[in-house]
């Protein structure tokens, strides 16, 4: 069965044969097949997105001790479709004085930036949109379009709350890109390649979570900040600035922002699975075929999506100065120290059986030293605060 | 697969098309009854005072600048990280010195009080 071993290539070849037999040039046929494949792929992503709305609402309900949607269909699974119909027949309001072009482009870019990430997602060895050799740079670049869309939305809305949300985005999403890129650099050093498929292949023996648990933690934290989810949801803090950058959006445009956020979370869940947990691998089960591998990958992505949700509904929002201090004074230096140590240890123990233990131990050492340093630093500040007679609570506010 | 960027290009087009289609369908189906109050700027029920494009803290700009330095740096670091295993040990130290210089910049900004939110 050729199809089960390599479904994408099989379909591609058979389509190419039938297209070219009708007198079409091979280039045109390839582009057409790409178009059909991408349309199917993105439609799948959008259907998944609709499913994620239901998952999100159901899970948050459970976290808050509620039932969640349970009226339409079994377990309320058709609720998102009702939501879509509602969003489609809502009036689309453009506020006075808004920059109409940017106002309409922002939600489009928001969803597009997420969909773009799916182009390099390797579900299984041969089930990947395209294996770019600059995959990780592409991930950062496509993610930046999302940041841009938030700034566009805030700036063009002609609303002070929206503008404030956009400013906070500049400070937050942009800042947390640095530790995220550093964590990606650590993965690149370990894998020796930037391509997503190559990174999954490099985890054949040991997944990178064991080689670099610290990089995983840094990536998880900065990914949550990039997504703008709680505890880093300052750009749409409901209790402070109404809804932040999408205050003025109604109907389907708001729906696109919402869909983009959910799909972004799931996509980052997928990237955590692929960067640190071996992608489609699960104790040899992936040998059953690429479709099983893709299912395992989706399962892992859903799990990390759930972890991101778990953090979102458990941790309260942090203050803007703490958020920036946490990034620039803690996460960024730590990430770059980790990068230097990983590069050095990885190079010294290259091709040696001690590579994995050495990397793991160096990670643990860095973590331990960081915690010890933070402890002594906190003790010093507490002593200073007590000596000067002020309350210890203010000591942490620089 | 001839050129992977053809695929990415088509992906961008389709990725733009789907949300545009969603907005277009909503524009066809939804009612259109604009009026002055509906379109006024939302500010918790209070009438808007002054221009919405307000002055903002210079702090945001400083963080933007610090970010820019690090972002440009990562572009240089990615090729180094990819080819690390085929480079001599000397190149590893070169990369580390490069990162250290940038961290020195961060420490300088830190000591200058640029990273404080006031």
From TrEMBL, chain A:
Main location: membrane
Record protein name field: NADH-quinone oxidoreductase subunit H
Keyword Oxidoreductase: yes
Any matching Pfam family: NADHdh
Family (UniProt): Belongs to the complex I subunit 1 family.
Transmembrane segments: 31-55, 100-124, 136-155, 176-199, 205-225, 256-277, 289-309, 330-349, 355-374
Catalyzed reactions per annotation: a quinone + NADH + 5 H(+)(in) = a quinol + NAD(+) + 4 H(+)(out)
Physiological role: NDH-1 shuttles electrons from NADH, via FMN and iron-sulfur (Fe-S) centers, to quinones in the respiratory chain. The immediate electron acceptor for the enzyme in this species is believed to be ubiquinone. Couples the redox reaction to proton translocation (for every two electrons transferred, four hydrogen ions are translocated across the cytoplasmic membrane), and thus conserves the redox energy in a proton gradient. This subunit may bind ubiquinone.
Compartments it resides in: Cell membrane; Membrane
GO biological process, one term: aerobic respiration
Gene Ontology CC terms: plasma membrane
GO molecular function annotation: NADH dehydrogenase activity; oxidoreductase activity, acting on NAD(P)H, quinone or similar compound as acceptor; quinone binding
Oligomer and partners: NDH-1 is composed of 14 different subunits. Subunits NuoA, H, J, K, L, M, N constitute the membrane sector of the complex.
InterPro entries: NADH_UbQ_OxRdtase_su1/FPO, NADH_UbQ_OxRdtase_su1_CS
NCBIfam families: PRK06076.1-2
Entry keywords, A to Z: Cell membrane, Membrane, NAD, Oxidoreductase, Quinone, Translocase, Transmembrane, Transmembrane helix, Ubiquinone
Record EC number: 7.1.1.-
TrEMBL record, chain B:
Gene Ontology MF terms in the entry: NADH dehydrogenase (quinone) (non-electrogenic) activity; NADH dehydrogenase (ubiquinone) activity; quinone binding
Quaternary structure annotation from Swiss-Prot or TrEMBL: NDH-1 is composed of 14 different subunits. Subunits NuoA, H, J, K, L, M, N constitute the membrane sector of the complex.
Reactions performed catalytically: a quinone + NADH + 5 H(+)(in) = a quinol + NAD(+) + 4 H(+)(out)
Pfam families, alphabetized: Oxidored_q4
Record keyword Translocase present: yes
Keyword field: Cell membrane, Membrane, NAD, Quinone, Translocase, Transmembrane, Transmembrane helix, Transport, Ubiquinone
Major location (coarse): membrane
Enzyme class: translocase
Protein name: NADH-quinone oxidoreductase subunit A
Transmembrane segments: 6-29, 60-81, 87-110
Compartment(s) of residence: Cell membrane; Membrane
Key word Disulfide bond present: no
HAMAP family documented for this protein: NDH1_NuoA
Any Gene Ontology CC annotation: NADH dehydrogenase complex
Protein topology in the membrane: Multi-pass membrane protein
Recorded family membership: Belongs to the complex I subunit 3 family.
Family annotation (InterPro entries): NAD(P)H_OxRDtase_bac/plastid, NADH_UbQ/plastoQ_OxRdtase_su3, NDAH_ubi_oxred_su3_sf
Biological function: NDH-1 shuttles electrons from NADH, via FMN and iron-sulfur (Fe-S) centers, to quinones in the respiratory chain. The immediate electron acceptor for the enzyme in this species is believed to be ubiquinone. Couples the redox reaction to proton translocation (for every two electrons transferred, four hydrogen ions are translocated across the cytoplasmic membrane), and thus conserves the redox energy in a proton gradient.
Entry EC no(s): 7.1.1.-
């Amino acid at each position: 069965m050729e199809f089960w071993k390599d479904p994408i290539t099989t379909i591609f070849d058979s389509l190419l044969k039938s297209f070219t037999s009708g007198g079409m040039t091979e280039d045109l046929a390839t582009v057409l097949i790409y178009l059909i494949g991408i349309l199917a792929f993105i439609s799948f992503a959008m259907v998944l997105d609709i499913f994620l709305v239901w998952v999100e609402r159901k899970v948050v309900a459970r976290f808050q001790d509620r039932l969640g949607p349970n009226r339409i269909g079994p377990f309320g699974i058709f609720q998102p479709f009702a939501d879509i119909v509602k969003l489609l027949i809502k009036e689309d309001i453009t506020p006075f004085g808004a920059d109409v072009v940017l106002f309409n482009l922002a939600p489009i870019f928001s969803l597009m930036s997420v969909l773009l990430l799916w182009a390099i997602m390797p579900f299984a060895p041969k089930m990947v949109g395209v294996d770019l050799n600059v995959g990780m740079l592409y991930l950062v670049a496509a993610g930046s379009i999302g940041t841009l869309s938030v700034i566009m939305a805030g700036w063009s809305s002609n609303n002070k709350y929206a503008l404030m949300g956009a400013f906070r985005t500049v400070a937050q999403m942009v800042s947390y890109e640095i530790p995220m890129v550093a964590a990606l650099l650590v993965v690149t050093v370990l894998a020796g390649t930037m391509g997503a498929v190559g990174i999954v292949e490099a985890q054949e023996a040991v997944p990178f979570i064991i080689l670099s648990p610290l990089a995983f933690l840094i990536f998880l934290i900065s990914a949550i900040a990039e997504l703008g989810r709680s505890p880093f949801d300052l750009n749409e803090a409901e209790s402070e600035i109404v809804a932040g950058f999408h205050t003025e959006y109604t109907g389907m445009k708001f729906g696109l922002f919402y869909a983009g956020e959910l799909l972004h979370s799931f996509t980052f869940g997928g990237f955590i699975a692929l960067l640190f947990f071996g992608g489609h691998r699960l104790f040899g089960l992936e040998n059953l075929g690429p479709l099983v591998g893709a299912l395992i990958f989706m399962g892992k992505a859903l799990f990390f999506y759930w972890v991101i949700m778990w953090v979102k509904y458990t941790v309260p929002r942090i203050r803007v100065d703490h958020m920036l201090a946490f990034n620039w004074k803690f996460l960024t230096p730590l990430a770059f120290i980790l990068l230097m140590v990983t590069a050095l240890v990885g190079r010294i123990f290259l091709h040696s059986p001690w590579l994995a233990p050495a990397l793991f131990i160096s990670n643990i050492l860095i973590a331990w030293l960081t915690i010890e340093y933070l402890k002594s630093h906190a003790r010093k500040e507490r002593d200073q605060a007590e000596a000067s007679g002020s309350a210890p609570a203010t000591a942490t506010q620089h | 697969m001839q050129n992977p960027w053809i695929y990415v290009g088509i992906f961008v087009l389709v990725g733009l098309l789907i949300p545009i289609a969603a907005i277009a369908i909503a524009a066809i189906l939804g009612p259109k009854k604009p009026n002055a109050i509906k379109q006024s700027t939302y500010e918790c029920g209070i009438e808007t005072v002054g221009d919405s494009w307000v002055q903002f803290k210079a702090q945001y700009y400083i963080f933007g600048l610090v970010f820019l330095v690090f972002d440009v740096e990562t572009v240089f670091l990615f090729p180094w990280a990819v080819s690390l295993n085929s480079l001599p040990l000397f190149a590893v130290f070169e990369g580390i010195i490069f990162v250290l210089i940038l961290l020195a910049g961060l420490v300088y900004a830190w000591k200058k009080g640029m990273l404080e939110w006031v």
